[in-house]
């Protein structure tokens, strides 16, 4: 059964809809970036419904170049805890994300740490 939207956030990148404590729906416009952070305790799964994600990742604390993968519609991928990650969107994209742990606003803020550098420029 489909659950109603608990909360919705909109900005110039698109919108995020909170569907459950650990399940969100994200619509992102072309030429935008999301994430650019890491999580200390919890990882998350993503499934791309439409569009694609140019995904950058590397182990937190590493000095290596990030690994880059293009995830297209139908792709499912996992980001473990303690991995820097950034999502670049070259086209309008819809994807869902669910976490190993709670993702209400308070829990998310406690577990998410913004990067002070741009993974796309390494």
Description of the molecule:
The chain has 122 residues and is mostly beta strands. It is built from one helix and eleven strands, in the order E-E-E-E-E-E-E-E-E-E-H-E. Strands 1-2-3-10-5-8 form a six-stranded antiparallel beta sheet, with no helix packed on it. A five-stranded antiparallel beta sheet has the order 7-6-9-4-11. Strand 6 and strand 7 form a beta hairpin. The longest helix has 7 residues, at 105-111.
Strand content: over 45%
Overall average residue pLDDT:
94
What is the terminal separation in angstroms? 43 Å
What radius of gyration results from the CA coordinates?
A: 14 Å
Helix content: under 10%
Oligomer: single chain
Short description:
The protein has one helix at residues 105-111, and strands at residues 7-11, 14-20, 23-28, 32-39, 44-50, 52-59, 67-72, 76-79, 83-89, 93-99, 112-114. The protein has 122 residues and is mostly beta strands.
Keyword list:
122 residues, single chain, mainly beta, six-stranded antiparallel sheet
Write the layout of secondary structure elements.
Blueprint: E1 7-11, E2 14-20, E3 23-28, E4 32-39, E5 44-50, E6 52-59, E7 67-72, E8 76-79, E9 83-89, E10 93-99, H1 105-111, E11 112-114
Antiparallel strand pairs: 1-2, 2-3, 3-10, 4-9, 4-11, 5-8, 5-10, 6-7, 6-9
